[in-house]
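Reopening closed ticket. The problem is back. First fold of the pair:
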Amino acid sequence: CIRDGCRDAVRSWARPYNEALTPSRACHPTPRQDRGTLAHVDMWPAGINFMIQLHYFPGNASMTPHLLLEELGTPFELKLVDRSANAHRSPEYLTLNPNGLIPVLVDGDLVLYETAAIVLHLVDTHAAAGLAPRVGTAERALFYKWLVWLAASLQSQMPMYFYSDRYVAAGNAAGAAQVKAAAETRIAGLIDQIDAQLASHHG
């Protein structure tokens, strides 16, 4: 089912990035050609200020910019936002993102939320890495389309599948089941779009 497939995929992709992460962890990624393990560096000089901080929680949408930062090979600091303790609802976190959502990227004086916006900022400020097509090209326009599609079309359906009880009155199990079934149908159609797109490029 969608639940098992999505969770298995996320676990396999995220495991190297989520294991043994402390609430505040400085990271210096391994070179791009060696992605077997990540070099999370624990011992940095006292008082060091990192230009880039990623406020994250394992298994959340923060995985996308986390993977991108690792791929870029730029030093950054992970800041755990403990959802189990409602840290994303704390006054301190709400000053970063008034929506109480994860992730947030702090890059110097810039505070940025919304995963797609974070991705665009990182690829633009690290253009030499070549992880996005050149600005002004048709390829770049398609890059925009699929990035926003993932955030606005696909990701927006996931809460209705995994947390369907939040969309109905308390105790309305039948209603929650209907919400979940409808979301599953929509997600399946969206996944078919991805499959067709990949197939058009020979997978």
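Second fold of the pair, where the issue appears:
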Amino acid sequence: PAAKYIAVISLVFSASVYLLIRWADTLIIGYFYGPVLAGIYDIANLLSLALFLLPEAILYIFIPIMINLHKKKRKKDFERLLKTSIFYIFIISLIPALIMILFSKLIIEILLDPGYAEVALPLAILSVGIFFRILFIPHSKAILVYGKSIYTFYINIIATIFNIIFNIIFIPIYGIVGAAVVTSLSYFIIGILSYVFYRRISY
């Protein structure tokens, strides 16, 4: 059916667009400041992305149950499970996120070298954005469970356009700190829009 093809295509494009958020800031830094600073910044990016690992693992437990409840049209149970998954994700993500935010400089010094200290603030900023995004991952997955992957595509397109435009504006002025702020705000946008679109389709 056409609807299934549209869903698959939108998922593929959505994943491709999401990759732009991952790489846009690094590439733009490389354009304005060269590959050395881009590489240093990407260290912060990679470390902050590690915060996604545990929440994604937890959701592998909840998603099959979500699918089953949705098929049986048990809406109240679905909502209850969604809230439960958010609670568990919050609990398991809070301490790692706080460590990344509060001790970013120490983390850089331990894992790398004191010479990379300039990447500590971007790491803290990116960690804030990713922690916020993590809290809305269940809503993103719920959108897919509802078969509305086109909304995921819209969300990623909006966040990516924001990310690219404002990185081009802020990186020449504020460097890697500006890049971290813009990318962090992009994660905020994805989280908020995921919540908004989920509420739109679930009521």
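Update: turned out to be a display glitch only; the data is intact. The mean pLDDT is 89. Residues 95 and 101 are 10 Å apart (CA to CA). Please close again.
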